[in-house]
């Protein structure tokens, strides 16, 4: 099998790759990051897998539209975020979500609240609370702390102004703090 | 104190997201989809073409049939009919129309009249009265006179001068009354047949007197008179 040279995000070598090589390179660099980011939005493994595949196909289709104004990472994340939000907005998702919640509420009734709390470590509780935040705060917190993007990069991914991102970050942190204190 | 959120990548990547990875079969799916994008579309089977063309043809024919039926259902109006209808609706001032409606109402309730239709052109009022088949001609004559008298009285009672805003009213009206029978159905047919009676009257709106004259092709003994 042909070996593809590894290229980092800022290399200019991207344009010398064939289309398929380019796609493989993108997947090598971002596959786990994309699928995990998708998971933080949809909170479902299967869906995250499907969405991640769709993200890479979309990247492949819109490859020519990438204008080097941002980094490849920001561009791939922006596609991921948009696809996940499209999915969350879709009527089909709402329908599935209701059924899913109904099923989960039945399952969770077997565990007592005490047992649930004991089973979760402090770290788990933090992760749990982050994933329970409202979407607008959750995505900013995750992109900043989990994906370690700068405020400027987050503003490019979410198409929002930097002061807005800072405000959302601050409010998200406060909300999280309050929730963790209540535990 | 260190911000616990800074540990978030470690917490998530080694915690609940640890098992969420992009597997090799996912990569293969993506590559396959990417390759498929460049593939020319597979040639369609003859059945597909046959079915598609038959369906298109059937839909086309159905649309044409529906369109033809729709066209056939639209009632056809001759230009004469339209013109007459326009005259009826537009040229009869509504005060005059009110008088005629009142007369028509009275006549239909008190006498055996099937229908009356009035058309005004300028200051000439033309009235068609439809009598039942079995009504003797002398009865028809009497009823026609009654009708004319009714119109005359109502015309006299209407204070024209004071109500000029009501539209173009009768100052001097010629009234023609044609009497016919109910076997003549449509207005167009009524206009074309030779008529049994022809009454020509003139109403003077100042004194309300109707001077009338019977002109009949069958009966040469012309009648004349004054109604008031």
UniProtKB/TrEMBL annotation, chain A:
Record-annotated RNA polymerase sigma-70 region domain positions: 28-92
KW GTP-binding (keyword) present: no
Gene3D superfamilies attached to this UniProt entry: 1.10.1740.10, Winged helix-like DNA-binding domain superfamily/Winged helix DNA-binding domain
UniProt-listed Pfam families: Sigma70_r2 (PF04542), Sigma70_r4_2 (PF08281)
Coiled coil: none
The RNA polymerase sigma factor 70 region 4 type domain, residue ranges: 124-176
InterPro entries assigned: RNA_pol_sigma-70-like, RNA_pol_sigma-70_dom, RNA_pol_sigma70_r2, RNA_pol_sigma70_r4_t2, RNA_pol_sigma_r2, RNA_pol_sigma_r3/r4-like, WH-like_DNA-bd_sf
Tagged with keyword Transport: no
Key words, A-Z: Sigma factor, Transcription, Transcription regulation
Membership in a protein family: Belongs to the sigma-70 factor family. ECF subfamily.
PANTHER family (UniProt xref): RNA POLYMERASE ECF-TYPE SIGMA FACTO, RNA POLYMERASE SIGMA FACTOR SIGV
Designated name of the protein: RNA polymerase sigma-70 factor (ECF subfamily)
Originating organism: Fictibacillus barbaricus
Lineage: Bacteria, Bacillati, Bacillota, Bacilli, Bacillales
UniProtKB/TrEMBL annotation, chain B:
Residue ranges crossing the lipid bilayer per the database entry: 50-71
Protein name in the entry: Uncharacterized protein
Annotated organism of origin: Fictibacillus barbaricus
Keywords: Membrane, Transmembrane, Transmembrane helix
């Amino acid at each position: 099998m042909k070996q593809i040279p590894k290229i980092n995000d800022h290399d200019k070598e991207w344009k010398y790759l064939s289309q398929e090589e380019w796609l493989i390179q993108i997947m090598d660099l971002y596959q786990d990051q994309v699928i995990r980011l998708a998971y933080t939005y949809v909170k479902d493994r299967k869906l995250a897998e499907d969405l991640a595949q769709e993200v890479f196909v979309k990247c492949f289709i819109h490859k020519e539209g990438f204008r080097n104004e941002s980094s490849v990472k920001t561009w791939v994340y922006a596609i991921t975020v948009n696809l996940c939000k499209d999915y969350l907005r879709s009527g089909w998702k709402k329908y599935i979500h209701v059924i899913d919640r109904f099923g989960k509420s039945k399952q969770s009734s077997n565990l007592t609240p005490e047992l649930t709390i004991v089973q979760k470590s402090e770290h788990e509780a933090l992760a749990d609370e982050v994933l329970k935040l409202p979407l607008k705060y959750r995505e900013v917190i995750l992109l900043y702390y989990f994906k370690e993007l700068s405020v400027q990069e987050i503003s490019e991914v979410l198409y929002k102004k930097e002061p807005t991102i800072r405000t959302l970050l601050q409010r998200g942190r406060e909300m999280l703090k309050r929730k963790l204190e209540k535990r | 104190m260190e911000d616990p959120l800074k540990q978030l990548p470690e917490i998530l990547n080694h915690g609940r997201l640890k098992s969420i990875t992009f597997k090799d079969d996912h990569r293969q799916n993506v590559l396959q989809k990417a390759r498929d994008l460049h593939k020319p579309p597979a040639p369609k089977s003859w059945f597909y073409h046959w079915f598609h063309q038959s369906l298109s043809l059937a839909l086309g024919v159905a649309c044409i049939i529906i369109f033809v039926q729709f066209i056939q259902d639209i009632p056809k109006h001759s230009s004469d009919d339209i013109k007459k209808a326009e005259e009826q609706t537009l040229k009869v001032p509504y005060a005059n129309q009110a008088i005629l409606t009142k007369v028509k109402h009275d006549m239909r309730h008190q006498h055996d009249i099937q229908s009356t239709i009035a058309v005004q052109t300028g200051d000439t009022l033309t009235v068609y009265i439809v009598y039942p088949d079995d009504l003797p001609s002398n009865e028809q004559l009497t009823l026609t006179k009654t009708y004319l008298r009714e119109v005359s009285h109502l015309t006299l009672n209407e204070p024209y001068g004071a109500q000029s805003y009501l539209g173009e009213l009768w100052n001097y009206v010629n009234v023609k009354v044609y009497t016919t029978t109910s076997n003549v159905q449509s207005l167009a047919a009524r206009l074309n047949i030779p008529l049994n009676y022809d009454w020509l009257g003139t109403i003077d709106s100042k004194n309300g007197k109707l001077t009338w004259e019977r002109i009949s092709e069958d009966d040469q003994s012309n009648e004349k008179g004054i109604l008031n």
